[in-house]
Structure formats: structure tokens, C-alpha cells
Amino acid sequence: MAEQEASGLQVLLHTLQSSSDRESILAILRLLGDLLSVGTDRRIRYMISKGGSEALLQTLVDTARTASPDYVILLPLFRLLAKVGLRDKKFGQKALELEALDVTLILARKNLCHSQNLLHCLWALRVFASSVTTGAMLGINGAMELLLKVITPYTQQRTQVIRAAAEVLAALLKSKSNSRRAVNRSYVPGLLRLHQDWHSHDTANSFVPIRRALLLCLKHIAKLRSGREAFLAAQGMEILFSTIQNCLDDQSLEPIISTGLQILRQCYPKSPLPLVTSSSAYSFPVPGIVTSETPRVLTEEDYEDDGEEEEDKDSDSEDVKEEDDDLETDVNKLSSKPGLDRPEEELMQYKAMCLELSCSFEELESKPGDDLNSDETEYANHHHIPTAASPKGLCLNKDQISGGQEKEVPVQTSLLSRVKMERSSVHVTSERGPGMNSYQNVHSNGPGIGSSGSDVSDIQASFREDAWDMDAISCPRISASFSNSTKTRETAEFIDQLLQTHPKPMVFHDPYLYMAKARRTTSVADFSMMAFPDFWGHCPPLSAQPMLQRKCGVQRIKILEDVRRLIQPSDIINKVVFSLDEPWPLQDTASDCLQFFSAFESGNLRKAIQVREFEYDLLVNADVNSTQHQQWFYFKVSGMRAAVPYRFNIINCEKPNSQFNYGMQLTLYSVKEALLGRPTWVRTGYDICYYKNHYHQRTAVTGAASGKCYYTLTFAVTFPHAEDACYLAYHYPYTYSALLTHLDILEKSVNHKQVYFRQEVLCQTLGGNSCPLVTITAMPESNSADHLEQFRQRPYQVITARVHPGESNASWVMKGTLEFLVSSDPVARLLRENFIFKIIPMLNPDGVINGNHRCSLRGEDLNRQWLSPSAHLQPTIYHAKGLLHYLGSIGRSPMVFCDFHGHSQKKNVFLYGCSIKETLWQAEATVGTSNLSEDVSYRTLPKILDKLAPAFTMSSCSFLVEKSRASTARVVVWREMGVSRSYTMESSYCGCNQGPYQGLQFGTGELEEMGAMFCLGLLVLELKSGSCSHQLLTRAAALLNAEEESLDVYLQRGSSNSSIASELDDEPPCLEEIEYGTGTDSSLDQEGSFSELDRQIQECAFHKDEGDEEEEGTGKGRKAIP
Ligand SMILES: [Zn+2]
Fold this sequence. Notes:
By secondary structure, the chain is of the alpha+beta class. Among the domains are: 545-696 and 708-729, Sandwich (Immunoglobulin-like), CATH 2.60.40; 736-925 and 935-1042, 3-Layer(aba) Sandwich (Aminopeptidase).
């Protein structure tokens, strides 16, 4: 703004305040009105900065205090006040200080019968009330009584005034002291009556803003416990429920529906979860004092103090601030390397885990002419790399294991041909899943019907004739040879029979081996059954499944159904049909209800309650020795009818939001489908949403400082067959026994002349299971000194996964990594020849086995124990860290350390790394970073993966070091072992919103592919490093040239300075607002009515102006990285 204009404005304001001349005041007001009615908000904000608010308020007070106030001055003045006040965050405070509240209230009282004057007073009150403190003051001075007088009784005269008054009242009720006053003076029944009057008379929906303002009044009052009680006593639930039912189909009533629903949710009486205790149904005597972290406080039931200037807070900027507060800004902590956390001599025990460094390979007598490389045959192809052709997978059924007839050479498709650049040809449609090909084709002409094969009808027959109910297929862990029970023996025979009649070539799976592994797996509850899918195996579906399109209004319909339980309880059954806590048998097979079961590895259903005929409330078990972390679920359901939509509600979820609101579906495995030749976990479910419910655990129960609230995941499933046994899970299960099975098969599958594959035990877990450690590299060419030297000098790469048991996606990524590394892919061969991989595929076996979501058997998050793990309390972490320390002590710290995880809030796959500079920069720390030296090599691998891997995106990566993450693997390995490329790799539970898989949910195939792509990334990283050997470069170049230009291109591209995409929003806006908070106000309310108030004032103003657009600050979110 020009200097002249600025000084001109100041002169005007000064004159306005000092002048007592009516004409000059009017002239100035007109001039200001003109000035502010054109241009943007910036002009108004400038005026505010120059004391504009004070000048106008002072003029108001001076004018109003005269014996007969001059409304010719007052009306334009009020309009200016409202316009300026809307943009001045301190306006309420200023009005209070200049005593403008009282004069305005007095003017309003005097003008109760003069609509135009009253309307102007109300506008001013509206902006005064935007500050909660000022609003409270207005309440004390009787403003609410005045407003109630204006809006009661119901009348359709003076609707403009009624609307303004109702809106002021709603604003005042944001103050809790005002709400309390309203409850004490019994405003609630009156407001409800007004609501009903307007609702029944306004059939043309002409007065939606008035109706909404009345609901907002109730909504604010309902934030108080006493307000909710008054609302319930006045039949508020019934009244609003029927209003909303009437409005549902009318789009123009959206503001009423959403506000009404918020009130219903707020007022739904809180109740404890239908559980005897929130502690896990399983407890395990663990060593040491269990220091389970205190439950996260999600909300406060009721804090009745007056919030101060609540709406001055911008919730977005608050969040960012909190996050930044968590950043580590202590340069010493960031850059100093702590000492060893254990006696140095203890490290020697890990020498035995690095036999590759001492083995002399005497069996490898170097015989001239015996070219090891000529033997190209390997058993295992990396089957998860999508290929158009369908190589026959490794088939290891009982009678085939020894036969070795699987030597046929699989079709070779190098990983290189599958990289991200080939966006057009990615397998979105039909190139999925070699491994299921041999029978998939047979059944491709329709689900289980018709010509396809005698085995289908055979199986169906066997169900009928032998009366094998599906429960028999629950697969006892103990086979006949271990038990005398006839039933068990029969079952085992039946399984044998099934496997013989349905020999399915399942890649890297073998039911008998699985059974053997499961038998030796130790669980807290001593599981005696296996889940059929884990036993029988899973083949990825033929094509990736798209994300579920969320239907508009699905959440409100579910919530209304929940409310209906309360007010129309007649059809509610409320029968417990499954429970880990009740001693008596609950499974009543005679009745028509579903049967549930989850006493198998990774299963964790705790209770099922039939609510309506086809609706069940489910509760999942807390982590062992914990009262929390319910999110993961895995259970069996049987006894279903065909073509009936069943609704399931998991009512004790804990996370505040979920990808289930953004297109994610759960997974289902049907036993009948499996026996028909489709043994596949598929994404399933519709009408899915995730929202805060009315369950609440009180302080006394949680032992925390405050109670906590719960969330419902609701979904509908129509099962594929009647009387089937189906398994439902949060994500594709991957059990500990599956891992052991898989590792054994992998070990058997590799060509041991070429691949050095060693499986050993890192340590025993608290639960008595062994934690596997895998070493993979290439065998030395011979045992000559040179070859052994090359072999032993290969740099290490360390990869871990599944420290969080609920993150089964991490195991599928790991499966892809392992299978790729031992495969005959030329890239895998190069990797083996140049690196030694140390892999701990499951850092938390006990958690996985016992169906935990987050913790170990001690109820603690193992990924918060890396700073000072104990050998007795966190053995897997202690020894994983010990192994890394050992490698460091012999100068062999890994080039890359990566811990695979799953992410429940974001899409895609991305890395978290560590950078001092980025952390300090983000925290805007005052410490100079210019003299800190930090190489930026930590960014190279994610950049490479961004170019290679279809699911990966750089834009979600972060390299900040948070205080709250100081004890995670990523930060500890970075800081204590000095590994600059230390990462957490997060894979979405859902899928991708970018790249070739955009709009698709992950299948196991995509996750496994990511694991393979990660390995390719490691190779490219090496090629780009200065230390890369000439020989490797030459060989890689030959390989890459053969693979068209693909890799060359990233190598070139990678070296240039690629621009970093600014951080994407986590989520696109959802179709309906997901409002969880009962205590926080949607800022939309406010802004909506503000610009609306603006509009009303403009309409009334002398000068109609156009184009006065809002220019709200849009620079939210994190700054782009420089
Ligand atoms: Zn995790």
C-alpha cells in the first residue's frame, strides 16, 4: 500500500476519533466504507494494524453515550465494525476494554421493536462474541436473555433478526460459562421446541440458517455433561433422530443433518465396553516389572473451564507445532555417538553369527574347468514379480518334496523389466500371480460352477456324505500320531484326504511342513488349532483390487442405526455368541447365528455379540499383558447364509483415524473357495467406515490420568457361500509358523553351489520361540585365497521386519525380499556377489503368534526399546543390536540398515531416515547448521526407489529425528552405529494414490514386489556410489544394456538434482466430514457463518461491492525442503 494512502488512512482514523462534528464523521464513515468495500482483505487487515478497530469502537461508544443516539451515524458504523471485527482476532478484547459491549447491549434492548436498528446491534454482538472471553462477559450482562426474547416464541416475522439473534446466541454458547447458565435456566427444552416448530413449519426449507443456528446452540450446550443430561431429559435424542430421518434425502438440509448428527453422537450416553476388563484375555508371566506405556489420551471427557479464546487457535498450525516440538534440536544429541551399551567382550558371542567371515569352504576345491556359473538352474524364481508368462511355481507337496521333479527352468523375467517406468504395462489387469496359474485357468470361467472339474463336486459331496462340517477343517495342530483321540485322528485323515484330492501347487508353501512348524510354536493360550488359510496357503489374486469407493452418507446411516439401538431397542438381541472371558460354552450351533473362533496363531477375537439378526458387535483382544492396542484382527466365522449382508462392528478400536475411511477393505479367505481352487485372501467388505463411538473407559479402569474413547470399524460382508468357513483379517495374515515354513522351503530351494544361505537362531523369545536370523550371499567362486578374500570383504546389508506384529504387510514385503535375494534373477546374483545380507525377518515372533497388534509379551513396544534393551526383557532387540554392534566393532557396519513396517494412516510405500540438518531446519532451530557437515547420501536410496518401485513415493519420505523416536531402530542404528542410511520402510495397509498402482489396494503380490524392488534399489545405490568396483559397473552395464534402457535412465537421472515434490496431503478430502471430536469445534462452522455474515452486511451496505474475495492464508503445512 502506498505511503500516501497509509498516512491518509491514519489521518482519517484520527479525525474520526477526535471529531465531534456529525457531518465529518458521516463523511469519514462513508469514505471508509468505500475504501473497504473494494480490494481485498489485506486492506482491512492493514486498517486494523493502524488502529482501525479501536477508532471505530471509540466512535461507537462516544456516539451511543449521547442522550439520544444518532442512528444515522450508528448504522454505517455498525456495518463497518462488523466488517472489520470479522478480521480482527483481538476484536472482542478491544471491544471489552473500550466498553463497547455495554453500549451495544443497551442499544439492542432499546431497539427490540425496531428491526433494522436491532439487526445492526446483533451483527456487532456477533463479532464481539467471536472471542470466548468477551462472549462470557456478554452472557454475564444478560445478552442471552435478550436474544431468547428475540427468537421466542416461534414466528415467521422478522426472520432476518431472528436469524442474527440465533447466530449470536450460538456464538455465545461456545463459552462454557454461558452454556452452564443456559442449562441452569432450562433453555434446552425451549430450544428443542423452537427446533421442532421451525422444522415442522419450514416445509419449503427457506430458513435453514435459522434451524442450523438453533442446532448449533444445542451442540455447544451438549459439550457440558449437564447439557447432555438436560438434552436427554428433554427427549432430545428422539426429537433429533426423527428430524434427521426426515431430512436425510434432502441435500439442501445438509447443514442440519450434519449438526444434528454431531449432537446425537455427543449426547449418546457414554458406556464402558462390554468387557469384564480392558486387560488382555491372555496374560503371561514375564520377567521384570512390566512398564507398559500409559494409554494414549485421546480426549478429555469434559473440561468445564471456560476456554480462552478457543477459536483463536488454528488447529492446523497447532498440529504442526506439536510435531515440531517433538523434533530433536539438541545438536549434541544429534551428532554425538554414545558409548557402547554393553561390555565389549559380550560382542564376541556374535562372531558365531557371522560364520561367513571365518568359513574356509574346504568343500570348494577349485577344480579348473568346473565352471560353477554354468549351472543356471535354480529352483526358485522370484515368482512375485509379475510376469505375463506363468512360470510354474515351486511346488512342495508331501510326495513331491523329495522327488526333485521341479527342476524345470522357470521363465526368466528380470526384475529390471518391471520397474516403474513401464507404467503402461504394469499388471493392473490380468498378469497376476504365477503360482496359481495351473488351476486358476481351470476355474476362470466362473466361480465354482459348471464344467470345470470333478474335484469340485467331489469335495462338495464329501461335505455332505461324510457330514464334515466346516469346523473339521479348523486343522488341529496336533496330528493323529500325537493323539489318541478318534476325532483328532479322523480330522488328520480328512486333511490328508483333502490334500491328496486337492494337490495345489502353492509357491513356497507346504501344508505338512506348516503343520510341523505350527506344532512347535509356543503360544500363551496354548493354541491347539491352525487357521485354515495359514495351513492351506494363499495365492495372490489375478489382479490388484481397486480401492473401495466410499458411498456418500454411509457413516451417518451407520450412526443412525447405532442411535436407533438406544431409542428403539425392541429389535435388539444383544446376545453374547463368543467370548474368551466366559467359562461356559457359548457356541450354540443349533441357533441361526454365526459362529466365531480365533484360538489360532495371530487370531485375536475376544468377544462377539449378536446385536440384530444379521449384525454383530465384535471386540478384539488387547495385546498380551496390556490394556490396549486393539487394531489388528483375525478370526474365523462360520454358519453363514448365502447372499445375506452381515454387518460387523469392531467396537474397541483405538486409533483416531484409519485407512478404512479412505478406500481400504479388510481381507477375507473362504475355505470353500480354497477347496474350489482359489486359495486366496481377497479384499472384501462394503459400507465400510471408521468413527468414534460412545464407548468410554473410565480413569479407574485404564489407570491413566484420563479416560479414553474408542472407535468403531464397521463393514458389511456378503459371504461367497452358505455354510462356509471364512476368515476375516485386518490385513493379509502372515504367521510365525508361516515364516518358519517359508524359510525352510527357501533353504531347500536354493542352489547351494551358488547361494550361501544360512538360517540360524538369533535368540529365544520370552515366549520360548526362536527368532530366526538369515544370512544370504553368493558362495565364493572357490576356496582360493583371492576368492575367499573377496567373499569376506563384501559389505553388509542388514534388514529387519515385523517388530510390530499387527503390521503383517511388512512380512509380505520381507517375503519378497527373501525370495528375490535367493532367486536366479541376474540382479539378485549381482547383489549376492557383492553383499552379505543379514536378515531378521521377524523381530517380534511372540507378538505375531499371540495376535498382538503392537507389543511384545511384556506389553511394550519393542521399537521403543533400542536405546537400552535388556537381554532378559527384550532379547530380540538386545541381540539384533548386539549383532549390529559387533559388525561395527570389526569395521563392518552395514551400508544400509532398514526395518520394514506397515503404516495405517498413509498410502504408498516410503522411507523414514535421519538427517541432522533437515531436523534442525524443520525445527527452525537457532543453531547454525552451516558449519555442520552432513553428507546427503541418506537421500539417495529413497530417490532411487522412487524411480524404480511402482508403489514407492519420495514425497512421503521424511528425514526428521523426533525425540519420541529416539529409541527406535532407525534412530539408534543411525546414531550409535553411525549408519547414515538407516531407515524405516513403511508400507500402507491400503494401497497407492500415485504411480502405476494409483487407486489400487495392495495385494500380497505388490508388497512382495516392493521387497524385491528394495533389493534392486540397493544395487543401484552401490552402482552410484564412488566405491563401486569397476568389475561390478561393467557387469551391471552389460546387464542393464540388455534390459533396454531402463536402468541406465535412472542412473543418469539419479545423478541430476531432482526436485523434491512438496509433501502431498495424506488424504484427499472425504465425501463427508469425519468429525470425531466432541470437544473441538469444526472451524468450518465459524468460517461459514463469518463469510455469511459478511454477505448480509454487504447486502445492506450503501455500496454494493463485488470481487471482495477472501484471501485466507493458504501457506499451511510444511515448507518444501530447500
Ligand atoms: Zn510399525
